[in-house]
Amino acid sequence: MRKLKAAVIGAGSTYTPELIEGFIDRRDSLDFQELFLMDINREKLEIVGELAKRMLLSKGFTGKIMLTGNLDEAITGADYVFAQIRAGGMASRILDEKIPLKHGLLGQETTGAGGFMNALRTIPAMLDIAARIEKLCPDAWLVNFSNPSGIIAEALLNHTNVKMIGLCNCFINMRASIAKTIGTANFDYEYIGLNHLSWITSVTVNGENMLQRLGKSTAASMKNVPEVQYDDELLAAIPAIPSSYLSYFYLREDQLNKCLNAEKTRGEICVELEESLVKQYGDPQLKDKPEGLEKRGGSLYSTAAVSVVDAIENDKNEYHVVNVKNNGAVPFMDDDDVVEIKCITNRKGAAPVRVLQPDIPYIKGLMQSVKAYEKLTVRAAMTGSRADALAALMIHPLIGDYRRAKAALDEMLAANARYIHKGFS
Questions:
Q1: Residue 297's closest CA among 406, 220, 207?
Q2: How far apart are CA 301 and CA 65, in angstroms?
Q3: How many helices (H) and strands (E) does the chain have?
Q4: Please, what is the Cα angle at 374 between 86 and 380, to 5 degrees?
Q5: Which of 28, 59, 134, 408 is packed most tightly, with the most Cβ within 10 A?
Q6: Residue 383, exposed/middle/buried by CB under 10 A (0-12, 13-18, 19+)?
Q7: 248 belongs to the catalytic site
């Protein structure tokens, strides 16, 4: 087993202890002897980083742990780079949620107008990280779970040479929900979609597809998505098990009204949760991930991240759901389109498995529409094209209306000028 260096970019995040727990759980198969924790927020990095040290040392870790604000220092010679950045911080996220609502549009971190603005900030930052990886650790794998994960993967896999995998915790939570419902984790599945726009189209146990028997009870909810109830007629129209984010598309008025009537946005709630967590992290007696972290909304993401790295490093040929180039796996999508799909994962990376049940018109139509939005968003983020930005918003199924899109775009570009392409100014 070779000795490894890991770099965590955005390590001041309150999610970091969960990732550290993942490293600890896999220490028999992943020998991380150097761990560089990097963040531009030194205060948070010190608090979260010191907890990470205590967690590792309490489990007998004898390697090197470094806290740094220098990106180049963190990634030089790294074998794996984990990215969990939030360009603009929580203040920008809250604006992503509030500005669209003023114009009658959904305000959400990863989809719709809010997700679009998050992408315009985050893509340039991730392209810079990728360029430095190409120079300072060209053989490293970049594992990204910065949001919006799918659009970032679309940008990096098509516009850089970095070895990159985009991750999300949606599937792993859906899988856990199904296993609980059917009483076994020993099942095969087919999964198709884009990040936060995905469906399970088959669940097979002993040759029997149990999809119809599972019904609406397995549409797993996420802490950062307001809960809704799907009726049987809605699910029969698809037919598939939707990820929780599909509720924004199926029941858009319900979800919009929930956001409009909420006392606080999800971002404001997360700020309060993070303040509480950071206070807990500062306790010098704390040596484990606190239970309160589960309320933050990133459940099982470290399991997803570290298990994928384990599969790559140890050439395991395991199935994982990740964001990769399509390469013919979904026949109605272009080969270069980044999709979220079941992949066989080994030392070469993640290779998509061709879907067997692709002919669901609803899924095809929605995926193609949202992928067109993603491509325009990437182009806008990279060039500063206002025309592409406006076109992206108008093609998105949750927006569409020109006047609302233009008004929201004007306000969002002004609020984010310091973080986005200068061409927008």
A1: 220
A2: 22
A3: 16, 13
A4: 75
A5: 408
A6: middle
A7: no
**pLDDT tens digits, 332-377:** 999 999 999 999 999 999 999 999 877 789 999 999 999 999 999 9
d(CA 422, CA 342): 38
Give the pLDDT of residue 290. Answer: 84
| End-to-end Cα distance, the chain | 51
Single-letter amino acid, residue 110: T
Sign of CA dihedral 72, 73, 77, 79: negative
Helix (H) or strand (E) holding 345: strand 338-346
Distance of CA 253 to the CA centre of its chain: 25
Angle value at C-alpha 93, between 150 and 41, nearest 5 degrees = 95
d(CA 220, CA 241): 9
15, 80, 230, 245: the catalytic one is 245
What token pair was written down for 125?
């930052």
DSSP-based three-state secondary structure for 164: strand
Q: Which residues on adjacent β-strands are paired with residue 4?
A: 32
252 token code pair: 């858009």
Q: Token digits for 271? A: 């700020």
Tokens 């990279």 — which residue? 382
Residue 278 CB: number of other CB atoms within 10 A? 16
DSSP class per residue in 40-82 = S-HHHHHHHHHHHHHHHHHTT--SEEEEES-HHHHHTT-SEEE
